[in-house]
Amino acid sequence: MSFVWTLAEQHEGRLKAVSYELLGRGRALADKLDTKLASLLIGDGVSEEQLQTLVHHGADEVYAIQDPRLAQFTCETYSNVLVHLIKTYRPSVILAAATSTGRTLMPHVAVRSHAGLTADCTELDIEPGTGHLLQTRPAIGGNIMATIKTPDHRPQMATVRPKSSRPLPADATRAGRVIAVPLDDVLVDERVKARGYRGDAVDFVNLEEADVVVAGGRGMKKAEHFALLQALADALGGAVGATRDAVDRGWVGYPHQVGLSGKTISPRLYIGAGISGAIQHLAGIKTSETIVSINSDPDASLHQVADFGIVGDLFQVLEELQRRLDERRGASGSDAGPPAGTRTPEARA
Ligand SMILES: Cc1cc2nc3c(=O)[nH]c(=O)nc-3n(C[C@H](O)[C@H](O)[C@H](O)COP(=O)(O)OP(=O)(O)OC[C@H]3O[C@@H](n4cnc5c(N)ncnc54)[C@H](O)[C@@H]3O)c2cc1C
């Protein structure tokens, strides 16, 4: 089996985009090490056709361990499967996504494998001469970039922030093997069963995958005003983010929190309204392609890192942005407007 592995992720039988991003990272490492790259899929219901797309995006081999008992992520069973494969094949490098699955599974596997794990890497490279994996991530509140290596233990494991790199373009002519690996019953932890996802779809927010994130901070003043951000996010096809301050005040749920102790996002467009730009928040948005800051304070830190800084009252600015978007969408014949009543003056009272 290959030396460098990436862990593909699926949800209800569909591969997640981050699976391809990881392959881009893994391909570069495998090429430097002059070795093969494998993608591992633990799950259920992913079609052969989809598995082939992992080859198209860079994998030399795809190992698919599929079984109805793996349809939903449970740490114990997934960990049993991965640890078993590690013991059997002894890879040198394993990359997983810094998603809730990766962040739960990889520490568990690292402890059981007596291996190192660097979480939330933004850069990965191979050290010339030694071939060690160089794992770079923000440290000390995002103030420095630390490069970590694991010279004595294998595998070298890292989680990588979703959207921190682009997948390689798909090449349908790439050749690779897709191998179905049967699930050994002894690896299934019968004590733990997934009973489906919690019924909190209302607050489910896939911030890491969103191309546009409209985030709010303490300047939003109260929970109801987050409807303004939701309306703008809906109009732009994006998701709503928040600072820890807004989350701590109970204005939005923790799944919306962006930053050091929340999610790391890399959208094409990030709009921050009423956010000062504390270092812990910036740590989560740094890799955004375009940053727009809306803040009445011209000296706000978020303005300093923004591509576009709008100095002004956020309520006026959001209203104007929404009006122009609605106008433009009206002109282009789209009738899918934001939810009615989200921009009424009462909402801002
Ligand atoms: C260990 C640790 C981890 C942390 N993790 C995170 C994290 O993951 N994410 C995170 O966000 N924070 C995190 N924090 C908290 C962080 O330090 C800041 O306290 C927080 O980000 C500030 O949130 P804020 O920008 O909403 O509020 P503030 O700093 O109070 O900023 C509010 C801004 O709104 C502006 N404003 C007010 N009214 C208006 C208006 N009408 N129009 C326009 N602008 C207006 C103000 O000028 C101000 O700049 C962490 C802190 C610690 C110590």
Provide key terms for this protein.
349 residues, alpha/beta, Rossmann fold, five-stranded parallel beta sheet, 23% strand, disordered C terminus, binds flavin-adenine dinucleotide
Quick recap:
This protein has helices at residues 18-33, 48-56, 75-89, 100-113, 226-236, 244-248, 279-282, 301-305, 314-331, and strands at residues 4-8, 10-11, 14-15, 37-43, 61-66, 93-97, 116-121, 123-126, 133-139, 144-148, 156-160, 177-180, 212-216, 239-242, 269-273, 290-295, 308-311. The chain has 349 residues and is of the alpha/beta class.
**SS-based structural class?**
alpha/beta
Q: How is the CATH topology of the largest domain named?
A: Rossmann fold
Give the tally of β-strands: 17
Overall helicity: 25-40%
CATH homology-level superfamily of the largest domain: HUPs
Number of helices: 9
Lateral arrangement of strands in the main beta sheet: 7-11-6-1-4-5-12
Strand content: 15-25%
Shape descriptor reads: globular
Question: How many structural domains?
Answer: 2
Estimate the mean pLDDT confidence: 89
